[in-house]
Amino acid sequence: MFYNTSEIQSWERFYRANLINSLTGFKSISLIGTINKNGQTNLAPFSSIVHIGSDPSLVGFINRPLKAAPHTIANIKSTGVYTINHVHPAFLEKAHQASAKYDASISEFDAVGLTTEFMENIVAPFVKESIVKYALKLEEIIPIKINNTFLVIGRIACIKLEQDILRADGFLDLDKSLSLCSNGADSYYTTKLIGRYAYAKPDTRTEKIM
Question: Which cofactors go with this protein (predicted)?
């Protein structure tokens, strides 16, 4: 099967969206928690979260066009702080429901039955049910002109996680935390570690360390 640009563009909108979204493969799925200046909380799932760098500790995500997804980015611009919370099987249905287009006056936390959790010096809400979560302070919002989306980059302000998934060298065993991944807009998967390998060097056989 082979498809060129004109064929891809001829596909029905949702068919094309499903295929292209699935084509990029498995992605992490997390809930981003925000709050506005009036104390109204917001929660939305994102599968576009990406590691930007470790020094400084930067994480990015893609926000859709403002017309389609205005609340998260508006709150981040307003307060400069937001949280990213891993999704686990115990509350997957609630996390998926948070993708519904609720009115700005409605908190997705309340609508889907998840619990807000606040930590010292962090104004944005965490998801209490998540066992791997972190807060970020906004560093930069980069407009992507070709499709009116935005790359939002934040610096990690704090991290909260279960101790038994953290290894001595800093590696996180996320399969132990049952953190989920996604493919497309509506499919979710569990993960299982196949192997972990030593740092690759030229002319040196790669060694499996886990």
Answer: FMN
Q: Considering the domain boundaries, does residue 22 fall inside one? A: no
Q: What is the distance between the alpha carbons of residues 49 and 38, in angstroms, rounded to a whole number?
A: 27
Q: Give me the residues paired with residue 44 across strands.
A: 32
Instruction: Average the pLDDT over 140-168 and give the result.
Output: 97
Q: Tell me, yes or no, whether 53 lies in a domain.
A: yes
pLDDT tens, residue by residue, 50-90: 999 999 999 999 999 999 999 999 999 999 999 999 999 99
Contact 61, 140 (CB under 8 A): no
- With a CB cutoff of 8 Å and minimum separation 6, the contacts of 145 are none
Residue 76 belongs to a domain? yes
Q: Look at residue 18 and tell me if it is in a domain.
A: no
Cα separation of 84 and 50, whole Å?
11
pLDDT in tens, 80-135: 999 999 999 999 999 999 999 999 999 999 999 999 999 999 999 999 999 999 99
In which domain, by residue range, is 101 found? Answer: 28-188
Q: How many domains in the chain?
A: 1
CATH of the domain at 169: 2.30.110.10
Residue ranges of the alpha helices (H) in 80-187?
Answer: 92-97, 108-112
